[in-house]
Amino acid sequence: MKKVFVLLLVIGLSLKVYSQNHIKQDTLLQKSFEELSELFYTSKPDTLKATIYAKKYFSKALKEKDTIEMMSGKYYLADILNDDNVYLDFCDSLIDITKKKPTKKFPAIIYLEKGKLLFQKNEVVKSLNEYLNAISSLKKSKNDSLLYLSKMYLGMLKAKINKDDEALKLFKEVYSFALKKNYFKKKSGFYSLLVNIPITYNKLNLIDSAMIYCKKAESIFSINNDSLYTGSLLYVYGMINKKKGNYQKAINLFNRAVPYHISDENSLVLLSNYNFTADCFVKLKRKKSAFKYYSKVDSIQQVEKFFSQKLISCYFFLKDFYKSKGDFKNQLSYLNKIIEVNNISNKKVTDVNNTFINEYDIPNLILEKKQVIEKLENEVQESRRNKIIYISLLVFSLVLISYQINKKRVYKKRFATLMKQNEATKTKEIEKNITQATSKHELSDDTVTTLMEGLEMFETHEVFLNSKINLQLLADRLDTNTSYLSKVINQYKNTSFSNYVNQLRIEYAIEKLKNDTLWRKYTVKAIAQEVGFKNSESFSKAFYKFTGIKPSYFIKELEKTETN
Q1: Global confidence as pTM
Q2: Is the dihedral of CA 212, 122, 524, 106 positive or negative?
Q3: pLDDT digits (tens, 9 = 90+) for 461-484
Q4: What is the C-alpha R_g of the chain?
Q5: Which of 171, 152, 106, 157 is nearest to 129 (CA)?
Q6: What average pLDDT does the chain have?
Q7: According to the model, what pLDDT value does residue 307 have?
Q8: What span, in angstroms and rounded, lies between the C-alpha atoms of 37 and 50?
Q9: How far apart, in whole angstroms, are the C-alpha atoms of residue 534 and residue 512?
């Protein structure tokens, strides 16, 4: 009897606990989004608790059919689970749904939010693509606020690749709009503009202008009681004082800004803060303090895997520091890191402008690496086998670099060849084909001539840009059959129908990219669709087949040529 009583008591208590938890979970749904957000951030050390708040945030948004808040819920989940794909995949699914019936907000705002996360993760090229997608979407559904927000983000990307004059022009344009619309009276998406303008002025050595905009920002942040952005201004003031040569004052300001960066979980700015602090200590000839802060920069990079230009000065210092201590292993480690950063920078086309190559000569790095390896071999008396491995690695590195240099040279030649081609060459080729059009098989001269003239019209009227065009449709347009048309293309164009059409499309794309700067701002996918390809992959393959270079490389070289 006692056992039965104890069992009933346990069941009763369990039901009570379940009931209390269930009520507590339901109570969370009654809270505002702001309250749930606050609960999420304050409970973050407890992963399980924070996950519950993130899920409840999303559930509440789903229940209220609030798309923007749904995205915030997924962002919190991605944050606590340390998996960006949770957020990015959700954004992609929303884009697929909303772009079928676009509105003034959607899918443009989703592209922008997705781009923001990628920017924070230093994925500059991917971020740029999302911002361009947003702008493209806004052409159909006019929304000035989102359009100017997109311009602000584009300005931030331009500043990222040191195009500061262009960045400032965009920032000032957006600033005028936001001021006119009173967007600074309360916290809004344009707030970061108030920090980016003085930073850009500072980079351009316009210190007085930087200070003017800092004061304006300080006034706005204090009115709206925004401590987080006030903290960001400490960082900006630190940059300005560093530029003025007030190194100790700059260090004090950078240190005061650190808690705000940590609170905001902004690892990229924290890395920059520590790097600037170390730079100041170098100027003050306090190497131990500089070493301390450069080591912090390195530790953040190892965790977050950022590849910022700021890492170069850090790694050079640490390399030389360990060299002076006779620590050749660490010296070699930072030599490898410099080379790694350089290699990654070459892959991120819009993220860098060959800065790393200019700051450090690759052949000298390879030579220094060889010398360090020899010292290591003498120091630890390694076996001949290890020596062969080290030398092989060095040779492999040299061969790889040689291959890359040769590849660039070949691409340059192919680009130059493309630039010399013109429409006159194409016209002469058409006339030549018509003149030489004579019957080689059973087709009469008249038939061949008629079809060749039809193909000339097909080319001059740019019918090949139609993505639905095929052999049957073209044959119908020319009042012939597919057999005759195929034979004429094979004999007088010396290629198959598909190759013939693809070559016309590629030639058209090349001419547009040469002469229309707007086309160079399109994504490869957008260009592919414009010239009749189903997707970017088939376009890129065709472009490489007929030119020997990739479309992204061609666009980059065009931009370089125009800049020069």
Answers
A1: 0.59
A2: negative
A3: 898 989 899 999 999 988 999 999
A4: 31
A5: 157
A6: 83
A7: 72
A8: 10
A9: 19
Q: Which amino acid is at 130?
A: E
Q: Is the pLDDT of residue 126 over 80?
A: yes
Three-state SS letters, 146-170: HHHHHHHHHHHHHHHCCCHHHHHHH
Interval 315-337 mean pLDDT: 92
Pair 558, 514: CB distance under 8 Å: yes
- pLDDT over 50 (residue 360): no
Segment among 118-122, 150-154, 490-494, 528-532 with least mean pLDDT:
118-122
Q: What angle do CA 70, 76, 79 make, to 5 degrees?
A: 140
Instruction: Please tell me the number of Cα atoms within 13 Å of 193 on its side-chain side.
Output: 29
Tokens of 505: 């499309």
Q: Please classify residue 402 by burial: count the beta carbons closer than 10 Å to its beta carbon, then call 0-12 exposed, 13-18 middle and 19+ buried.
A: exposed
Measured at the alpha carbon of residue 136, what is the angle toward residues 538 and 531, in degrees to the nearest 5? 30
Q: Give the C-alpha separation, 249 to 242, whole Å.
A: 8
Q: What is the mean pLDDT of residues 19-33?
A: 67
Q: What is the pLDDT of residue 431?
A: 47
Quick: pLDDT tens for 276-290: 999 999 999 999 999
The type of residue at 217 is A
CB proximity list for 269: less than 8 A, separation 6 or greater: 232, 235, 261
105 touches 143 (CB < 8 A)? yes
Report whether 170 contacts 147 (CB < 8 A): no
Measured CA to CA in angstroms, residue 494 lies from 41, 453, 488, 490, 506 at distances of 67, 16, 9, 5, 17
* Residue 321's pLDDT band (cuts 50, 70, 90): very high
For the chain, the straight-line distance linking the first and the last C-alpha, in angstroms and rounded, comes to: 95
Token pair for 340: 């790694």
3-state secondary structure 288-315: HHHHHHHHHHHHHHHHHCCCCCHHHHHH
Query: For residue 508, how many other CB atoms are within 10 A of its CB?
Result: 17
Quick one: which of 194, 195, 157 has its CA closest to 175? 194
Distance CA 85, CA 68 (A): 17
